[in-house]
Design goal:
The complex is a heterotrimer of chains A (291), B (252) and C (335). Chain A is an all-alpha fold and 291 residues long. Chain A has eleven helices and two strands, in the order H-H-H-H-E-E-H-H-H-H-H-H-H. Chain B contains ten helices and ten strands. Chain B has a six-stranded mixed sheet with strand order 6-7-8-3-9-10, with helices on both faces. In chain B, strands 2-1-4-5 form a four-stranded antiparallel sheet, with helices on one face. Classes of the chains: A mainly alpha (291), B alpha/beta (252), C mainly alpha (335).
Chain lengths: 291, 252, 335
Amino acid sequence: MIFSFDLLINALVSGILIGAFYAAVTAGVSLSFGILDIVNIAHPAFIILGSYIAYIVSVSLGLDPIVTSILVAPAFYALGAGIYQVYYVSFEKRGQESLRGLAFFFGLLFITEVTLVLYFGVDYRYVEAPYIGPTWHIGDVDIPMRLFVPCLVSLALIATLQLVLTRTFVGRAIMAVAQDQFALRLMAVDPIRIKRIAFGISIATASLAGAFLIIIQPVEPSVGRQYIGRVFAICVLGGMGSLPGTLLAALLVGVFESLTSTFYGPSWAPAVSFGFLLLALAVRPAGLLGR
Amino acid sequence: MTELLKIDNLGKRFVGFVALENISLAVAAGERVGLIGPNGSGKSTLVNCICGTLRNDTGSVRFDGHLLDGSTAHQRTRHGLARTFQLTRPFVGMSVLENVEVACFAPRVRHEGHARARAHAMLERVGLADKATSLVDVLPYGDLRRLEIARALATRPKLLLLDEPFAGLGTSEIQPLADLIRELHRKEGLTILIIEHKLRELMQLAHEVIAMDFGEVVATGVPAEIVRHPRVVEAYIGKAEIGESGGALGAA
Amino acid sequence: MRSPLFFLICLIVGGAVFAAAVALGNDYYFFAGYVVLQYVVLSTAWNILGGYCGYVNFGSAAFFALGAYSTVALHRLYPLPIPAMLIAGGVVSGVVGFGMGYLTLRLRGAFFAIATLALAVVLETLIVNWEYVGGSRGAYIVRPETIAPFGDYIKYLFLIMMLLAVAAITAARVIERSRLGYGFATIRDDELAAEASGVPTLRLKLIATTMSGALMGMAGAPFPYYIGYLQPSSAFGLDYAVNSIAMPLIGGTTSWVGPLIGAILLGSLQQLATVTISSAVNLLIVGLLLVGFVIVAPNGIIGLVHKYLQRKPDDFVGRRHVDAEAPDRVPGPAP
C-alpha cells in the first residue's frame, strides 16, 4: 500500500463522482423497494439492458448514449408498468410476494442476462462519446470526464425525481400509497394505478442509469449482478425511499469503494458493498415488522 | 394480590409520531381487566409492545417477576403470556387440529402423541372439537376466533391477552364468546386482559377497566366509574362513535 | 410409511437405476445421471429453507462452490477419500449458512434473499483471488481411472451422489413430518403468529439455513473429481443458481416430492438438450419456465396433479395451498 496525498485526493474525487452515479442507479430501487416495498432484484438487469440499448444506438446511429436513454425511457416506463401489472395480479393480490414474487424477479433478472448473452455474447462493450476520453486536471486532481458527465446528469436525475415526488400530485400520491392505500381510495385515486406509475418510473430510471454505466465502464451481461448488493445496501442505508438519504449513502459507498480499490486493489470492491449491505442490515430496527 | 403484568413508563414512537407515551399499568393475577380506547388510541401498539412483536423505546414490561425487555415474542409466550390477534392469523396451510398442535410443542412435550391429545383437549375446551380435521379456509369468523383462543391456551398461559376478540362478530356470536372467556377465567384460573373498543361487551366482562386515548392512559377504575369519566366520554363522543358508545355509556 | 423403510425403498430404487445404467453399457448415463442426482440434492436442500420456511436463497451456487473448493483446498493438503470430503464440504457450507443466517434472519425474508445474492458475488471474488486453490486460472484435480470394486471412477461418483440424494430426500421427508417441519410451516404461513404460539422462529430458521447450506456443500464436494478441472466460473455457475430455485418451484415446494420431480424432469431435459442446443438457450428456457410456472402454476407440478385429480388437499404437513381463484388475500374455500 503506497500512501500518497495525491492518490488519496483522487480516490476521494472519483469516489464522489461514482457515488453520484450509484445514486442514480439506486434511485429506481428507492422507488420500488423503499417506497413500494417491491423487491425488484432484477433492477440491475434492466440497467444493463439500458446500457446495451445505448450501445446499439451509439454504434448504429452515432447518437449520444445519454440522449438515447432519455428517448428510450418511455419504453422502459411501459415495460415497468407492464411488469408491475403482472406482479400485482400474480403475487401481490394473492399474498405471495415473499417467495414467488422474489422468484419472479429473479427469473426476470436471469432471463434478461441470458438473452443479452445470447445476442451479444460475453465480450465487453463500450460506447464512444466526446467526453469519454478527456480528463480535466485541476492541480494534482484528475477529474475524468467520463465520470464527471454522468455524475452531473445523475444529480440532475435525482433532483428531478425529488421534485416530482414532493411537488406533483402523482409524486405525493406515490409517497402516500406506501403508507395508506385506504386514504388514497377515499380520494378516488386507484392505488394500483399509482403503484404502476411508480414502478414504471423506477424502470425508466434504469434506462438512464444504463447509459451512465456504459459511459463509465465497459459492460457485459453479468455486470448487473455486482450491483445488486450495492444497490440494496445504499437503499437501506439511505433510509428506504428517501432520495436525499440515498444520495448520501451512495456517496459514502462510492468513496469507500474508491479508497479500497486504490489502496487495496480493485478486486475487493464487491466485498466493500457487501460489507455495507451487512452494515445496513445491522442498523435496521429489529423485530419482525421490519420497518 | 400479586401483580402479574406490570408496565412502567412505556413509550413507543414511530418515525414522525408518538404512538405511546408514559404508559404505566398493572394487571393483578386472577383478574379480568379491560383496555379500552377509540381507534388510534394506541391499544394495538401497546399489545404488540407487551407481547414482544414491537420493541418499546422507553419503559419496561414485567411479567410474573421477569423483566421482558429484550426477549423475543416466543420467549414471552413461554413465560406464560399468550395473545390472540385482532385480525385472526391462523396457519392457513394446516388443519384446525394442526394449528393448535403446533402451539402444544411449546411447553416441553415429549411425544407427538401427547401434543395431539392436548390439542384435541384444547379444541374441546373452546367447542371446536368437531372441526378438528377441517382446513381453516372454510371456518366462519367466530370459529377462527375460537381457534385463536385454543392456540393461545395450548401454550399454557398465565395471562391471556385478547386483542379485540369481538371485532367482526355478529350479535349471535358475541355472547357465546363472552361466556367462553368468562368460563376460561373461572375454570383455568387465567388472568385475562381484553382489548376492545366495543364498550358494551367489555363492561360486562371486566372487573377493572383502563382507558386510553392518544397513546396515553387517561383513566383507570371499575366499569361504572369509567363510563362516567369525562376524559373517556370525550374520547368516544369526540371521535363520533355516538351510536354504540353513547348507548353503552348511557346504559351504564 | 416409517422412515427407515422409506430409506430402504429409495436405496433399492437407486440401486435398480444404477444397475440399469450399468446394463446400458454407456458411461454417458453415469455422467448425465450424476448431474441430475446433484440437482436432486440441491433442489431438496433449497426447498428446506425455501419451500418449507419460505425464505428464498439466491446463493445456492455459493454454497455449492464452497463445497467444491473445500475439496480442492483439502486435496492440496492431502487427498482424502470422498466421504471425508463430503463431510468437510458440508461443514464449511453449513457454517457459512449459519453465519449468514445469524446476520440476516432476524429481518424480513427479502433482506435475507438479497444478502444471499450479494454473498455469492463476494465469495466468488474471494475465491478468484485465492491462489492456493488456483484463483481465476482454476485447479486441476486428478481423478483416478478406476477404483475397486466399482470399476470406473465415474460409477463410484454416481453411487456417492445417489446415496446423497437418497439421504437428502429421506431427511426432507423426516423433517416434513416432524415437529421441526410443523415449525417451519408456521414460519412460512405466518411468522408473527408462530412466535406468539411459542415457536422459536429464529432458532428454527437458523437450523434450516444451516442444514440447507450443508447439504448444498455436500453436493458440491465431489464436483472437482467429476469435472477434473475446476474454475470459479463453473463452480459459481448461473445454472446452479437458477436450477436450484426453478426445480423446486416447478416441481412443487410443499413436499419432498416436488424438488425430486423438478430435478429429474428439468435435469434430464437439460442433459438431453445440451447436446442439441447451446447452454445459454438451455438456461433461458429454464428461466422462462420458472417465471411461467410461478405465475400460472404456483403450486408446481404437484399442485397441477392435485387439481387435475380434483382431490381435497390431504394431510400433508403444512401444505400451503395457493388458491389462484381467490379474491384479494382472503383464503377461498378448498377445492
